[in-house]
Amino acid sequence: MAEETKSNDESQGFQRDESMIEQYVKMTVDPKQNPIYPKLDEIIQNLGNIKDKICVDVGTGPGIMLPMIDNAVGAKGSIYALDIDKNFLNYTKNKVVPTLKCKDNVTTIESKVDDLCLPKELNAKVDVFMLAFVVNYLQEKERYKQILPQISNYLSKDGVLVILDFDQEFVDATFGTCDENEEENHNDNDDKVGYGTKWKYLEPEQIDKLVTGFGFKFDRFILKNVVPHHHCLVFKKKDPKK
Question: Rounded distance, CA 97 to CA 105, Å?
Fold first, then answer.
């Protein structure tokens, strides 16, 4: 198995222990708590033929998306699983990667809050960037201003950026809300169970506006309105000549 771990001299905040990760996984794969889970494989299949392609899962967490990506890229495909939480990465490496067809071509990377830490040789070669439930985190301290240009640089000419997320109403109803005082006192070493609710979740129109400001163009929705309060948007790189 290919593996790359980047040193990280900046505090990455909250690190989950294994019991919390197990709880997180149990919640995430439960269709009652996470109604989009049964549709994840269909979402990946809607990307078209990505067999043998290079995919990057940004904010991979405990590797929930990896089996679906693996089904699509096959044994000769490559997956780069990125997260700032080294405990998530250890869980992914030890419990998820060994089950994958392309396990010899999976690289786990401990990224930084403002740096994907991908190998330079991947520049303009990545076919799919997957951002599942991480846009809210990129809003914190406007991290998207550093991350989205990096994604654009690494994405191939015909590659796609896929953003999967839920809306604020779903988050508030499922995980509770943070009032303004709690939010102000909520520092980088804190977190709430599951996905966390200290950040504001964006509607599709807001995601579109945010992403297209960094060299991308909206391409299409996947499974729009199939699962209430969830959305999946696909973006491509703008033609610099236009």
Answer: 10
